[in-house]
UniProtKB/TrEMBL annotation:
Subunit structure: Homodimer.
Protein name (record): Thiamine pyrimidine synthase
Function: Responsible for the formation of the pyrimidine heterocycle in the thiamine biosynthesis pathway. Catalyzes the formation of hydroxymethylpyrimidine phosphate (HMP-P) from histidine and pyridoxal phosphate (PLP). The protein uses PLP and the active site histidine to form HMP-P, generating an inactive enzyme. The enzyme can only undergo a single turnover, which suggests it is a suicide enzyme.
Protein family (similarity comment): Belongs to the NMT1/THI5 family.
Organism: Actinomadura decatromicini
Catalytic activity: N(6)-(pyridoxal phosphate)-L-lysyl-[4-amino-5-hydroxymethyl-2-methylpyrimidine phosphate synthase] + L-histidyl-[4-amino-5-hydroxymethyl-2-methylpyrimidine phosphate synthase] + 2 Fe(3+) + 4 H2O = L-lysyl-[4-amino-5-hydroxymethyl-2-methylpyrimidine phosphate synthase] + (2S)-2-amino-5-hydroxy-4-oxopentanoyl-[4-amino-5-hydroxymethyl-2-methylpyrimidine phosphate synthase] + 4-amino-2-methyl-5-(phosphooxymethyl)pyrimidine + 3-oxopropanoate + 2 Fe(2+) + 2 H(+)
Any single biological process term in GO: thiamine biosynthetic process
UniProt pathway annotation: Cofactor biosynthesis; thiamine diphosphate biosynthesis
Gene3D superfamilies assigned to the protein according to its UniProt record, in alphabetical order: Periplasmic binding protein-like II
């Protein structure tokens, strides 16, 4: 049996489309007390009965978590003897604190630096799997005037979010781009400036802005940073050291990871079914659209499997090479971490 505590509010794409206009903040903010009530469930940490397991997401239910939802819908968690509570997130979702304080058994954080920063400050956490084996961070340009390589960035006007600016500058310098020949234009997450040809490319995610633009009839070209030496795992699963040290809690976490892996394998095999589940079971209250979720899932699939072919040891597995790429990329933007942050022990490693 699986419970999903779903907040009223809006889909991520809707949020991105109105970001910076005030309405998004008000609409999502109204959901916070509701989420807090959900998060206070005694299910966390397995306290409410044998097999009870709570997982906290970084964002609201959508295609980014398709494998987890298929795990629930298809009874994969039940087969493992788990009774799972899925706690959604949202803007400024406090995933790390909930895992650190053992209010939930496991968290899914969008980016590894959030976990690494907490560990640097003394938190006892481990990243136990990578939902995305390849980073979807990309430069997105229009199909009729594509930016295909880092050097082509020179002489261009680039739309960049405040959150992405530091990483973008590091990426350009590492790829020999003369930053003095680039004009950076502050933008929000909305890709409208690109559609309006106000900029030549925007910083974004392969499964996000290109999908939004395609649904508006705008064709794009995507240049993933990972294809040019700047890769890091994303959508990371992480747990507290306390969970890993407790045999019963660790076993529940292992079973959850096994079922989630099976869920993602099934979602990749039958993306139509996965998109249908997201909409019918989780998306109605959030205003998500079937075509949008289907396209988002198709776009994110290569990043889940590591560009079309999962690592030899399966989805979520953090190879030595991926760990080192993540360390190198995060170190270059000022995040301190080492290999001890990562463990494959819940994946059979």
């Amino acid at each position: 049996m699986t419970h999903t505590c779903t907040p009223p509010g809006m889909g991520r794409r809707s949020f991105l489309r109105v970001a910076g206009q005030g309405a998004a903040v008000a609409a999502v903010g109204s959901a916070v007390p509701w989420l807090s009530a959900c998060g206070s469930s005694d299910a966390a940490g397995g306290k409410a009965g044998k097999g009870r397991f709570a997982v906290k997401l970084a964002w609201i239910p959508n295609a980014e978590y398709a494998g987890i939802f298929i795990g629930a819908e298809d009874g994969l968690y039940t087969k493992q003897g788990l009774n799972v509570d899925v706690l959604p997130g949202g803007p400024n979702s406090a995933v790390v604190p909930m895992v650190t304080t053992n209010r939930v058994d496991l968290g899914v954080e969008a980016i590894p630096e959030n976990v690494a920063t907490a560990v640097a400050r003394g938190a006892k956490l481990k990243i136990v799997g990578a939902g995305l084996l390849k980073s979807p961070e990309s430069w997105i340009s229009l199909a009729d005037r594509p930016v295909k390589s880092p050097k082509e960035i020179e002489g261009k006007k680039l739309g960049i979010t405040l959150a992405g600016k530091n990483t973008a500058l590091v990426f350009m310098k590492r790829n020999g781009v003369d930053v003095s020949k680039v004009k950076l234009v502050p933008i929000q997450f909305d890709p409208a400036p690109l559609a309006a040809r106000e900029v030549d490319a925007i910083w974004g995610f392969a499964s996000n802005q290109p999908v939004s633009l395609e649904l508006r009839g705008v064709r794009t070209h995507v240049m993933p940073l990972a294809d040019f030496g700047f890769n890091r795992m994303q959508s990371v699963f992480f747990a507290s050291q306390k969970t890993l040290d407790d045999p019963a809690a660790r076993e529940r976490a292992r079973k959850f990871m096994a079922a989630s892996r099976q869920g993602w394998e099934a979602a990749l095999r039958d993306q139509k079914h996965a998109a249908d589940v997201i909409i019918k079971r989780y998306g109605a209250k959030l205003g998500l659209k079937l075509d949008e979720q289907a396209k988002s899932l198709a776009a994110i699939a290569p990043y889940v499997s590591g560009d079309g072919g999962a690592a030899s040891k399966g989805l979520f597995w953090m190879s030595d090479a991926l760990i080192q790429e993540t360390i190198t990329s995060l170190t270059s933007i000022g995040i301190k971490l080492d290999k001890s942050l990562f463990t494959n022990e819940l994946l059979g490693g």
